[in-house]
Design brief:
The chain contains five helices and four strands. The chain has one domain (2-149). β3 (139-141) and β4 form a beta hairpin. The chain has helices spanning 10-22, 67-84, 87-92, 97-108, 124-132; strands at residues 2-3, 6-7, 139-141, 147-149. The longest helix has 18 residues, at 67-84. The model has no long low-confidence stretch (mean pLDDT 93). α1 packs across α2 (67-84) and α4 packs across α5 (124-132). It is 39% helix and 7% strand.
Length: 150
């Protein structure tokens, strides 16, 4: 699938889709500037009606990630797969790259589900340790209506 003209693997698309359903709409303004959790903007603004309580996938899809965010996701997934080394082939005995990328996001963000919860047999804890090396990352909905990596 192409996003912003960049060919993205199924694993990268899965990673981005996981971000969409797992994360909320972090807004580009301070909380005290929000009215009922929404930006005080007119109907023609790309963020009109969007609340910080909404899941990203309530309003956005993978095409709504900024170019930098897509490039960052490609880099993060590639670096994680590289870091796995020979463990990647063992992980593929349990799941495909789409599921591995999905579990990578959930694990790195500490979402309470991920590699360690039983789907990866005796390598789940090791996959978790490697995923956690990537650290937590966050995304922000910009005033341009795009999702940006912070």
């Amino acid at each position: 699938m192409k996003i912003h003209g960049i060919e993205c693997s199924e694993a990268v698309v899965s990673y981005l889709e996981t971000i969409l359903w797992a994360e909320h709409c972090n807004m580009p303004v301070a909380e005290e500037e929000l009215v009922d959790g929404r930006m005080n903007v007119g109907e023609d603004h790309p963020l009109y009606g969007i609340s910080e309580q909404d899941s990203l996938d309530d309003h956005f899809d993978v095409d709504d990630f900024s170019l930098d965010a897509v490039e960052g996701a490609i880099k993060d997934v590639a670096e994680f797969f590289k870091r796995l080394g020979d463990l990647l082939e063992k992980a593929r005995e349990y799941k495909d790259d789409v599921d591995i990328a999905y579990h990578f996001w959930l694990t790195r963000q500490g979402h309470g589900a991920g590699f360690w919860d039983g789907d990866y047999g005796d390598i789940g804890d090791e996959l978790t340790e490697i995923a956690e090396l990537s650290g937590v990352t966050n995304y922000l909905v910009g005033e341009d209506g795009k999702i940006h990596q912070m």
